[in-house]
Amino acid sequence: MTEQTGNADETAHQPGRRLNELLREAGYPSLSEELSRSFEDYLALLMRWNMRVNLTAVRSEDGILARHFVESIICAHVLPTEIETLLDFGSGAGFPGIPIALCRSDIAVTLAESQGKKAAFLQEAIRVLFLPVKVHAGRAEMLGLQFDCVCLRAVDHMSDAVETAGQLVVPGGWLVLMTTAGDFHILQTAAGAKFSWSALIGLPGSEDRAIALGRRTTETHLVWRI
Q1: What's the pTM?
Q2: What does the pLDDT look like over 34-64, one tens digit per residue?
Q3: Torsion sign, CA atoms 59, 62, 65, 71
Q4: Domains parsed from the chain with CATH numbers
């Protein structure tokens, strides 16, 4: 291998090393080499598409790694182990659904995105990354399905979305919100009394951003006795 080729290869894998540094700083384990390369491929695709389609307002490589990748990987880590099916409601550029699919191959992930250009990006991303993920190019509630877990992150009209998303969670399943501590109580109210919430999980680089996990109560039927 020539020095020039070696330097090019080293540069190509810098994002993966930087991502692992950020994860270790946040107290989470590093990714395997294979997984790191998948995230590098995802990053490269996202950066290319973001030049012509507004996928994310965060446009710098380091910003995407620190804000989108790390936070989504942490979400994958904190998901309960019993989850088998997951819906990323309003997936946008694939956060947190694609990182969850990469990190948790035990979960069948569906990405729902109503905006056509973003849905097209998601289709290309799962093709490039060889992910067995479904993309629903439409409103999530039109799926007519319920899931063990529904995740939301930076969705338009978040309160209304949370109210709708709560109906797509199976009894005993989970609603996962990537939000802020300041907005959590509003979203908690929107989800309704059928969810019980764990303590917020803080995210690195912010005193406010957090992950909230709410479990839907198991529905029981009242029997009237005469």
Answers
A1: 0.90
A2: 999 999 999 999 999 999 998 988 888 999 9
A3: negative
A4: 3-216 (3.40.50.150)
